Amino acid sequence: MGLTIHYTLSVKEDIALGVVRELTKRAAAYARKIGCEHVSELLRAEEHEKLSCVHPSRHFNDPPFSGVMPRCGWLVSVWPGPGCEIATFGLCRYPRWIPRGQSYVSAGFKKGWFFHSFCKTQYAGAHGWDHFAKCHLQVISLLDFWKRMGVRVKVEDEGGFWKNRSKEKLREELRQYDRLVAAMGGVFKDKCDQTGQWAVRSPIFDYPAFERLEHEGRQEYGGHIKWLRGKLRGLMRAASKRVELKS
Questions:
Q1: Which of 106, 120, 124, 147 could cysteine-pair with 4, CB 3.0–4.6 Å?
Q2: How many domains does the chain have?
Q3: Taking residues 8-33, what's their average pLDDT?
């Protein structure tokens, strides 16, 4: 949970694998140019399951499917800086049909190249607004770069910057997310501390202003907090009963 940038890169044309590698290589060079903290070497997508496995179709929401691996592709992982998640970029070719039982189901992919991922930037804010803005805008700048290279880019930026390009609005979104996450996290922590059965950790707990953010969040999102508290109470009762049955 936290302010995140979700993105999809795609190319409808059947371009060569060598072209995909060159695009990824240029993106890696650009990431170094704009000052990202760390940029990986180029990665073969088919050798990195955790980075390239995707869930494009409803068929893969059910066991035994855990996702679809690409046939080929190139990726690069970029770390903007402390507190920010690693962002991975690239293009992959995925199979259009996947065996299921004694038949095949559509994997949901069309002709061409595709990649989907996300990057949670919120906790870069633990190091101050300027650092958060640098990290968030570096991810956006990389997506802009892929777009300039002719790749189709679809973005859902929870900070709103992709659409409005407003640092002021981005800062306000960050504040709202900090208050919401602090309030929600506080509810989880309080309930788990009462039972002593579970431990809850979140980067938001380490913020110097956590108590203030939690208080403001509970005031602003009171209705949601009340609902969550009731939901947690029910879930914990159910979990406790399962534990009793097993013992």
A1: 120
A2: 2
A3: 97
Closest CA to 129 of 173, 185, 86, 160: 173
On whether both 49 and 100 belong to a single domain, the answer is yes
**Confidence class for position 131, pLDDT limits 50, 70, 90:** very high
CB atoms within 10 A of CB 47: 9
Q: Which domain holds residue 24?
A: 4-163
Element (H, E) at 157: strand 152-157
Q: Which residues of 102-124 are buried (b: 16+ CB within 10 A; e: fewer)?
A: eeeeebbbeeebbbebbbbbbbb
The residues, ordered by sequence, that sit 6+ positions from 245 with a Cβ below 8 Å of its Cβ are none
Answer yes or no: do 157 and 223 share one domain: no
Work out the average pLDDT over 120-141: 98
C-alpha span between 173 and 98 (Å, rounded): 40
Q: How far is CA 126 from the centre of its chain?
A: 18
> 112, 154, 142: which is closest to 20 by C-alpha?
112
Structure tokens that stand for 156 in this block: 């859902």
Return d(Cα 34, Cα 32) in angstroms, integer: 6
**What spatial distance separates the first Cα and last Cα of the chain, rounded to whole Å?**
33
The residue count for the chain: 247
Q: Where are the beta strands (DSSP E) in 63-120?
A: 72-79, 87-93, 97-100, 103-106, 113-120
Contact between 88 and 78 (Cβ < 8 Å): yes
Question: Is the separation of the CB atoms in 105 and 59 below 8 Å?
Answer: yes
